[in-house]
Design brief:
The chain has 187 residues and is α/β, with parallel strands linked by helices. The protein is built from 9 helices and 6 strands. The chain has helices spanning 2-9, 42-47, 54-63, 67-70, 98-111, 123-129, 137-142, 161-166, 169-186, and strands spanning 33-36, 76-78, 88-89, 92-93, 117-121, 150-153. The strands form 2 sheets. A 4-stranded parallel beta sheet has the order 2-1-5-6, sandwiched between helices. The chain is globular, with a radius of gyration of 16 Å.
Length: 187
């Protein structure tokens, strides 16, 4: 894992992106919970730490974990579909570059040997982790069970406020189950 992380962090596949390559992830073969997002945002790119932004604050709240717990690589692997900030388009950040996942995803997933729970957010992450599904995000989130090993979540971005308002069952029904599952894994 150590060599793989060095190789990923030295990757230059994203040369030519507006802010250049800066692969950002957190992983350890001992990690028990994997969080899969799309790609780092502009703030994350600047800080060099995954989810070190308002989305991360909301996500930690959803999970019921402290900042210290979240950034413990022996507990949480934070491995997005693309490791570099892809740039900004008209509707927000651009999608992650497919070449990143094609090059690195299988290699890093094979090293995450202790996973007990995977949390997946965003359409590209959902498509990779639920390849046979034609369900919408809302349908996938509703289909979660208390014993699912792979859980679909909406992205915790402040931009998803509309989805959260339209789906109040998420906070009322899904978040308590999610917090219980995370607490069980952390025990």
């Amino acid at each position: 894992m150590h060599q793989l992380l060095q190789d990923i962090r030295a990757c230059q596949l994203c040369e030519g992106l507006p802010l250049g390559p800066r692969p950002i992830l957190q992983a350890s073969s001992a990690a028990r919970i994997l969080i899969v997002g799309q790609a780092p945002g502009r703030i994350t790119h600047a800080k060099g730490r995954p989810f070190d932004d308002p989305s991360g604050e909301r996500l930690r709240n959803w999970l019921g974990v402290s900042r210290e717990q979240f950034y413990d690589e022996e507990t949480f692997a934070l491995v997005p579909m693309g490791f570099c900030f892809p740039g900004t388009g008209t509707g927000g950040d651009l999608p992650p570059r497919p070449l990143c996942a094609q090059t690195w995803r299988t290699k890093i997933m094979s090293q995450l040997e202790s996973l007990q729970l995977t949390l997946v957010m965003g359409q590209y992450a959902l498509a990779w982790h639920f390849p046979e599904s034609s369900s919408s995000l809302t349908q996938l989130v509703r289909a979660n069970t208390p014993y699912s090993k792979v859980i679909a979540l909406p992205h915790p971005s402040p931009r998803n406020g509309v989805w959260l308002k339209r789906n109040p069952w998420f906070e009322a029904e899904v978040l308590p189950v999610l917090r219980r599952r995370v607490a069980e894994v952390l025990e």
